[in-house]
Inverse folding.
């Protein structure tokens, strides 16, 4: 027994020593590895759904797709405007139905093969003919008539109707010489490392839920990136990622909460980036949900069908207070459904159009509409019942949950009782897709091209007769709005189109199927002692990550030649000290046991 | 129990006997220092939780009405600092005790009731009823209960009731096994035989003889079940399956973790709810162990 | 979790009937295996039905937030067989299980079986290392505690075990993360920059393993300690020990040669019986430390929610616990002379 115990003691000492010594051994190796050049390490909070760009839909995966593959056009880092990509120039026929793109020469796949118009035509045709290939980006080609490569450098696309979005085709182009051999796109994992691509980085390793490694593409047509390697390291909770940034385990993180952002402020080695986000948050107010054939569905409160009630409710909500209290000031008050980061298309309401917090006016409006207050301060509906609305928030969105508490209180102030429940994201989809809601929190991330978000509020997006197949964001159906929507889609002059887009938003505000509450800031932080030069999109107050491009990563430059040693050396030192203490402690225990055992034997 | 004035009725006799047994049990419990400490701790915590509305102002829990700093360190105004919405952590922990205890007690009660019913029935009736019920129990006994609870709380509507249901429905099998064993040993005693011979039906035997002798052990078991239900509640809340509008110790830890308490080193937000859980769970465990020692003579003197 | 501290349950000897004969043993083994097969079938059916009740149209969840047309939605529904009647979906699912096919994940468009296989390694590493350490630590303290029954060591370790047992796993993990600062990595299993050779990988994984492992052991070891202690205490009062003493055997030899081996049995059985607990420890620890195992996969499947993945992970976790329990029953049968002799 005592021999066994001694062995156990020895083994545990060995294990402890090895584990604690690990940080000594590893960086020594790691530094040898890193000699060739700097590695930018990025904390990733969302996992990768697929490496196959035809299937990938998570934000993280589409961003990875941008790093791996080039697009026909890009969005300028400066202002998100369409800019050259693989296509160096383009022109359209007078009827706007035929588009001719000239593909730049000299661009190469990472295996050395030239990128030609044929690769582009192959990609688009695949999406038009193969349902699985249309999974992620199929909507971009849904109005295409044909796509042909006239020669190596000329691509011709014919569309069925004029499309203003022809310079915003957000589709990664894949190499025909490899992808034409793929038999089943829907099951293809695209994980033969290194993955042949055309973007600034080449994917070399992927360990699901652990990390992703990309090497710089030396032959990238814009020029090789300044960093040698890009690593995405996966974290399940954002706090762990923040800690990793502090310790220097990662160099760039995003999706910070205000408290995390503020907490990082004191660190001299860390630079913060408060950027305008692409998301808007809204409070849906059920305007009377109906199918495409105008058959009412769901059980929304009838009082809400009156636009004056919807406006009175909006007047009772203090969006400024939500920004100050819920977002801790990291955001802007809501206006139109296109966030201010897209300066061209963002709508600024006039003083008369803007929703002003004014409970007195809201109370008066509701009084005038005949909703009298009952004895308990709750208004009585026309049917004699108290005016009571359900409010749903998604329980995985803390900001919505907190905002709900405020809105419940504010509604009480204008005599509306609110039954507030938090539900899962799935249940929220279920409630809103069937029209079974009165008030509900929602929100959308928007693209540089406003077409998609605008389209979600047209009559035709409502569900079909069977109640299925709808993608409406708000159950809005308004003829004026639909006309404005159709006009902007066929308008090719950017300034004129922006004007139409703004008019559509003004109309949305007028119909008020939802109240836009706020635009949240995107909060990011990076180790400025190690890297700089991250290009923001748009310039000035834009984001570094989750761009409509890869300017942030592509622009990264190592800061000086200083070594990262400092903190990790102390860590190693502490590790060694603890290892010695632990081993010593175990040795003492083992020795004392032996002595004791010996004395026991002597008895 | 039927109580008649006459001292000679069997009901009164049984009553007197039980009273005596209870006071004997209490005497034995009293000498177990750790159990007593647990009981006192529980009493204090329960009293504080019940009196929370009297002693404190619940308005200070309403995010719309507070104006403290976000994640503020402990100060004169806020003895345990504030959370991300500027609410007092002390107050949150205090009120969190109410919901955590309620959930823990209800879930434990639910699980023990299910377990007792199944345990008694399977032991009493024997035969195929027993076989089926025990097969059923064994099946649930081996299922990882947290996984099942997670699945249940995903499927059902989010809320406190769901959490109670999820915990209660997944943690009863061990009680069932225990109650079954105890029932079997009770039913093997000669007086049950006698009761049957005298024409006592199933209901009579179960309610008059089996249950009274099984209940003390069930009581001890409930005490232990509360402890694990409270941990289960906090774990489910931490995994994001709780009701975010309710303040429980688990939901506090969840928001502490997701709002940067670890990064900021906001120990005042992370420690109180966790210590609250440890204190209550430990108190229930100590009480439960002491009770078991008292009620289960086989264990006496061992612990 | 209470069941650990509830004696009577695991000390109740399995009801065995009849004389000990080879046919009896065979019947026992077959009975246990048959029971396990039924249990696994139940698990599979439960896994299927439970998650079908989830609200919401899976297709809409899949396409949330990106441009889709009604035709595309119909196509997706067809591809995942969601228009089929429930019984047909169930038959497809069961048929798939027999071929080792758990279906295709909604979120990742990958075979669920493949994804689960990827995660088994890390979970086994964490749970295996943790359980071995917890068993060694728990038994050692338990034996010593029973030995020196009533000593300060005994009292301190018992209180410590009870306290640690009352600690929520995830909270301990968070505290460790906060307290240890730069000593250990904040999460993950291996650093991407670590060279691919064996030794550096081993050291780096070990370094990442320290905090998750400590958290896991701290919460789990208590049960082994308490059971070992009370089991040994019970054994130490047994008559046969007096016989051994009367034969002139030295006191510590009596304990080592007789008491400890016999007391070990319930404790070892417990290791297997409470594997379900280990699974839930894994879920929380993996979530706190971003450890890429099955627990984390379950957590991710939940947040999507990815039906095939959920039912796959559920079936595998529950199924393996069922299997381990059969192993425990059989081991008990093999090792415990009392059970065999009845």
């Amino acid at each position: 027994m005592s021999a066994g115990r001694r062995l156990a003691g020895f083994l545990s000492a060995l294990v402890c020593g090895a584990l604690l010594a690990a940080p000594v051994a590893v960086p020594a190796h790691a530094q040898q590895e890193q000699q060739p050049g700097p590695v930018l390490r990025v904390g990733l909070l969302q996992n990768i759904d697929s490496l196959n760009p035809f299937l990938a839909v998570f934000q993280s995966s589409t961003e990875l797709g941008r790093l791996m593959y080039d697009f026909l056009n890009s969005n300028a880092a400066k202002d998100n405007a369409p800019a050259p990509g693989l296509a160096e120039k383009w022109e359209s026929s007078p009827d706007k139905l035929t588009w001719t793109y000239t593909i730049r020469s000299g661009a190469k796949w990472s295996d050395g093969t030239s990128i030609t118009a044929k690769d582009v035509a192959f990609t688009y045709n695949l999406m038009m003919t193969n349902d699985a290939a249309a999974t992620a980006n199929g909507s971009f080609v849904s109005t295409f008539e044909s796509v042909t490569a006239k020669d190596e450098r000329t691509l011709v696309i014919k569309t069925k109707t004029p499309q203003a979005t022809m310079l915003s085709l957000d589709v990664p182009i894949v190499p025909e010489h490899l992808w034409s051999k793929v038999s089943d796109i829907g099951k293809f994992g695209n994980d033969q490392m290194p993955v042949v691509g055309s973007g600034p980085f080449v994917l070399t390793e992927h360990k699901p839920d652990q990390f992703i490694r990309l090497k710089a593409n030396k032959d990238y047509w814009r020029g090789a990136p300044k960093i040698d390697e890009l690593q995405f390291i996966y974290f399940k909770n954002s706090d762990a990622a923040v800690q990793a940034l502090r310790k220097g385990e990662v160099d760039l993180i995003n999706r910070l909460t205000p408290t995390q952002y503020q907490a990082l402020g004191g660190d001299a080695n860390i630079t913060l980036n408060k950027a305008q986000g692409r998301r808007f948050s809204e409070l849906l107010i059920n305007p009377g949900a109906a199918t495409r054939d105008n058959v009412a569905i769901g059980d929304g409160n009838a009082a809400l069908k009156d636009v004056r009630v919807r406006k009175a409710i909006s007047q009772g909500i203090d969006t400024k207070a939500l920004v100050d209290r819920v977002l801790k000031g990291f955001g802007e008050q809501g206006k139109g459904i296109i966030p201010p980061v897209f300066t061209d298309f963002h709508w600024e309401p006039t003083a008369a159009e803007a929703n002003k917090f004014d409970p007195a006016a809201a109370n008066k409006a509701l009084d005038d509409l005949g909703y009298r207050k009952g004895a308990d301060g709750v208004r009585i509906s026309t049917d004699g019942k108290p005016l009571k609305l359900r409010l749903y928030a998604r329980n995985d969105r803390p900001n919505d949950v907190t905002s709900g508490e405020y809105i419940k209180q504010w509604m009480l102030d204008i005599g509306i009782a609110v039954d507030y429940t938090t539900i899962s994201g799935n249940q929220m989809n279920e409630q809103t897709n069937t029209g079974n809601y009165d008030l509900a929190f929602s929100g959308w991330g928007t693209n540089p091209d406003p077409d998609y978000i605008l389209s979600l509020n047209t009559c035709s997006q409502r569900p079909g007769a069977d109640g299925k197949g709808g993608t409406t964001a708000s159950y809005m159906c308004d003829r004026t709005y639909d006309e404005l929507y159709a006009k902007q889609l066929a308008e090719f002059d950017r300034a004129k189109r922006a004007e139409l887009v703004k008019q559509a938003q003004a109309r949305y505000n007028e119909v008020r199927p939802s109240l836009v509450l706020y635009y949240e800031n995107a909060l990011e932080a990076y180790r400025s002692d190690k890297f700089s030069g991250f290009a923001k999109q748009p310039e000035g107050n834009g984001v570094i990550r989750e761009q409509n491009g890869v300017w942030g990563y592509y622009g990264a430059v190592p800061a000086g030649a200083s070594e990262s040693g400092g903190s990790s050396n102390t860590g190693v030192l502490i590790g060694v000290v603890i290892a010695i203490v632990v081993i010593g402690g175990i040795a003492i225990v083992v020795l004392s046991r032996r002595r004791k055992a010996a004395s026991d034997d002597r008895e | 129990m039927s109580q008649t004035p006459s001292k000679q009725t069997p009901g009164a006799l049984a009553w007197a006997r039980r009273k005596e047994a209870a006071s004997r049990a209490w005497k034995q419990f009293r000498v177990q220092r750790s159990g007593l400490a647990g009981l006192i701790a529980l009493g204090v915590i329960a009293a504080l939780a019940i009196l929370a509305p009297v002693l404190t102002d619940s308005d200070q829990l309403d995010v719309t009405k507070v104006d403290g700093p976000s994640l503020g360190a402990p100060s004169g105004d806020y003895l345990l600092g504030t959370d991300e919405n500027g609410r007092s952590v002390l107050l949150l922990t205090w009120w969190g005790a109410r919901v955590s205890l309620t959930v823990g007690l209800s879930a434990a009660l639910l699980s023990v009731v299910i377990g007792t019913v199944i345990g008694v029935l399977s032991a009493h009736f024997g035969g195929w009823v027993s076989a089926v019920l025990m097969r059923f129990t064994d099946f649930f006994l081996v299922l990882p209960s947290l996984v099942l609870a997670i699945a249940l709380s995903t499927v059902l509507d989010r809320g406190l009731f769901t959490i109670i249901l999820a915990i209660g429905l997944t943690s009863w099998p061990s009680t069932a096994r225990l109650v079954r064993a105890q029932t079997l040993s009770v039913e093997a005693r000669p007086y049950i035989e006698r009761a049957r011979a005298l024409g006592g039906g199933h209901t009579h035997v179960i309610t008059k003889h089996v249950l009274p002798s099984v209940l003390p052990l069930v009581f001890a078991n409930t005490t232990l079940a509360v402890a694990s239900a409270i941990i289960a509640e906090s774990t489910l809340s931490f995994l994001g399956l709780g009701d975010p509008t309710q303040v429980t110790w688990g939901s506090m830890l969840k928001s502490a973790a997701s709002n940067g308490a670890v990064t900021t080193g906001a120990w005042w937000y992370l420690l109180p709810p966790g210590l609250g859980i440890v204190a209550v769970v430990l108190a229930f465990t100590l009480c439960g162990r002491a009770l078991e020692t008292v009620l289960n003579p086989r264990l006496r003197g061992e612990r | 979790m209470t069941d650990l501290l509830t004696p009577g349950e695991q000390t109740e000897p399995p009801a065995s009937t009849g004389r000990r004969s080879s046919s009896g043993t065979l019947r026992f083994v077959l009975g246990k295996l048959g029971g396990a097969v039924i249990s696994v079938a139940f698990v599979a059916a439960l896994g299927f039905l439970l998650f079908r009740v989830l609200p919401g149209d899976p297709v809409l969840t899949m396409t949330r937030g990106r441009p889709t047309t009604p035709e595309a939605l119909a196509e997706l529904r067809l591809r995942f067989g969601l228009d089929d009647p429930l019984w047909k979906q169930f038959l497809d699912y069961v048929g798939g299980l027999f071929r080792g096919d758990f279906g295709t994940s909604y979120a990742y468009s990958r075979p669920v079986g493949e994804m689960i296989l990827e995660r088994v390694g890390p979970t086994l590493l964490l749970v295996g290392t943790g359980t071995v350490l917890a068993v060694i630590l728990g038994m050692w303290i338990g034996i010593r505690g029973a030995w020196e029954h009533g000593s300060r060591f005994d009292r301190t370790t018992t209180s410590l075990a009870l306290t640690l047992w009352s600690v929520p796993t995830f909270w301990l993990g968070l505290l460790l993360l906060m307290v240890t600062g730069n000593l250990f990595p904040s999460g993950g299993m291996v650093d991407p920059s670590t060279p691919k050779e064996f030794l550096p990988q081993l050291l780096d994984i070990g370094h990442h393993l320290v905090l998750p492992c400590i958290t896991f052991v701290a919460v789990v070891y208590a049960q082994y300690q308490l059971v070992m202690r009370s089991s040994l205490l019970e054994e130490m009062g047994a008559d046969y020990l007096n016989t051994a003493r009367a034969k002139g055997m030295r006191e510590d030899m009596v304990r080592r040669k007789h008491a400890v081996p016999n007391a070990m049995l319930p404790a070892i059985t417990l290791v297997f019986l409470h594997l379900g607990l280990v699974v839930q420890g894994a879920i929380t620890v993996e979530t706190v430390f971003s450890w890429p195992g099955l627990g984390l996969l379950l957590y991710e499947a939940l947040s999507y929610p990815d039906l095939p993945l959920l039912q796959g992970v559920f079936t595998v976790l529950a199924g393996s616990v069922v299997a381990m329990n059969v192993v425990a029953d059989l081991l008990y049968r093999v090792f415990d002379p009392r059970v065999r002799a009845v």
Notes: Confidence is low (pLDDT under 50) at residues 1-6 of chain B.
